């Protein structure tokens, strides 16, 4: 090889190495490739979020190894920020007059879906694994529905209607139910393994501190945001203040160890129902948040490990199958019991499969807590988190596709023509 070729090769290798160790360069690559792949998937009729998650898998340790586990910790604030905005936008979609008309339907579907999902996953995995602790914890975490992956499909296809409202409400309720059940099952198992007597008061204390504080934060900052909208009249000022309040509410929730999604969901609900300019402001903020959402799904994908599937494939498939069965049967039965409309009865059972943020977040919290109990606890926690990572890989692909199918089947998709950019002809 000539000296010139060696110099050129060394030069380009240094550039590539710099790009892949530079935080902003990695984020730029993630956004660009994520959006590009999302658009390609959209062209073939698959929700964009699936393509973006696959980009994350390719960039992560299961693929090219550009995003490593240690480096992902640096991006945690971006993940938290994305979840905060997802919560805010979901809350903003929940109009009180719609919730009143669907109140009975939503509550009965929610109760039935939670009971069936928890019970079917618990029994199915206990029979499969003969491990009560693992079955209890996986049954608990299966109740959650990924707010980000589910809501993103709804917004991508401009969906609107009673099925859409029901889905968005159930997303929030599912996460609250997951935290409640988790506070009981995790405390029971941690106390049992640690040789400490279990008390329901301690478990409920965890739930109230996690959700109760979140509701108070959402109400407080929601009122503050409404006050600011009366002080500032220009739309530009309102959406800048809205962004600041959402970030501040998320930060306070994290500070007191409350649920960030619940706090910003309540904030969005208060803002959208008591401010006339809310819908326009929320739309602008959502458009500005798109790059953050793209990074979020790339990072979620980069956490997923394909190499775990051969070793944990059986357990992961059992968890995936039982959680889908529980969600479908529970939600569908609840819809029939509540005398919901035909659109909801036929489709609601297809829309709640995705799992990601809340499930993996509580899974990592559980791993940390079990690690304190020694080797046995650590091994249990590690098995659970690996099963969740394997199952999430499947559910994050299947879930959004089924949501899209259900929305089209319910005739609730109102996708607009994409606004294109005009170009000045070159001379």
Number of helices: 17
Main sheet attributes: strand count, strand direction, barrel closure: none
**Structural Rg:** 22 Å
Oligomer: single chain
Number of domains: 1
Series of secondary-structure elements, N-terminal to C-terminal: HHHHHHHHHHHHHHHHH
Number of DSSP-assigned strands: 0
Q: Under the CATH scheme, which class?
A: Mainly Alpha
The residue fraction in helices comes out at over 70%
Mean pLDDT: 76
Shape: globular
Q: Structural class, from helix and strand content?
A: mainly alpha
Strand content: under 5%
CATH architecture heading? Up-down Bundle
The rounded distance between the terminal residues' Cα atoms is 43 Å
- And the CATH topology? Na+/H+ antiporter like fold
Q: Catalogue the unreliable spans.
A: 3-9, 11-20
């Amino acid at each position: 090889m000539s000296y010139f070729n060696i110099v050129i090769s060394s030069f380009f290798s240094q550039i590539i190495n710099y790009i892949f160790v530079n935080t902003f360069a990695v984020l730029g690559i993630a956004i660009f490739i994520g959006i590009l792949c999302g658009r390609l998937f959209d062209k073939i009729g698959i929700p964009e979020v699936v393509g973006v998650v696959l980009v994350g898998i390719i960039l992560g340790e299961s693929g090219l190894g550009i995003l490593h586990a240690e480096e992902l910790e640096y991006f945690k604030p971006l993940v938290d920020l994305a979840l905060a905005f997802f919560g805010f936008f979901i809350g903003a979609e929940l109009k009180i007059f719609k919730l009143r008309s669907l109140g009975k339907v939503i509550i009965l579907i929610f109760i039935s879906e939670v009971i069936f999902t928890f019970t079917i996953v618990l029994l199915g995995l206990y029979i499969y694994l003969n491990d009560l602790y693992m079955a209890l914890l996986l049954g608990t975490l299966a109740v959650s529905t990924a707010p980000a992956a589910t809501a993103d499909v709804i917004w991508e296809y401009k969906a609107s209607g009673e099925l859409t409202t029901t889905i968005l409400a159930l997303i929030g309720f599912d996460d609250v139910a997951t935290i409640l059940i988790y506070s009981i099952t995790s405390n029971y198992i941690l106390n049992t393994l640690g040789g400490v007597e279990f008390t329901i008061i301690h478990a409920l204390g965890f739930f109230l501190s996690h959700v109760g504080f979140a509701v108070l934060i959402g109400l407080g900052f929601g009122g503050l945001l409404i006050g600011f909208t009366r002080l500032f009249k220009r739309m530009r000022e309102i959406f800048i203040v809205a962004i600041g309040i959402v970030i501040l509410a998320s930060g306070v929730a994290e500070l007191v160890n409350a649920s960030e999604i619940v706090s910003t969901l309540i904030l969005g609900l208060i803002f959208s129902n008591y401010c006339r300019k809310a819908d326009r402001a929320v739309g602008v903020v959502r458009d500005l948040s798109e790059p953050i959402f793209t990074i979020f799904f790339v990072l979620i994908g980069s956490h997923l490990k394909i190499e775990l599937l051969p070793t944990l494939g059986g357990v992961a498939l059992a968890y995936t199958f039982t959680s889908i069965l529980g969600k479908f049967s529970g939600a569908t039965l609840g819809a029939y019991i509540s005398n919901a409309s035909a659109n909801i009865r036929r489709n609601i059972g297809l829309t709640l499969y995705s799992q990601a943020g809340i499930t993996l977040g509580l899974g990592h919290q559980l791993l940390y807590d079990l690690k304190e109990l020694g080797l046995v606890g650590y091994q249990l926690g590690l098995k659970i988190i690996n099963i969740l990572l394997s199952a999430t890989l499947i559910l994050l692909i299947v879930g959004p596709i089924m949501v899209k199918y259900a929305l089209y089947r319910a005739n609730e998709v109102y996708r607009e023509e994409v606004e294109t950019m005009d170009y000045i002809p070159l001379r």
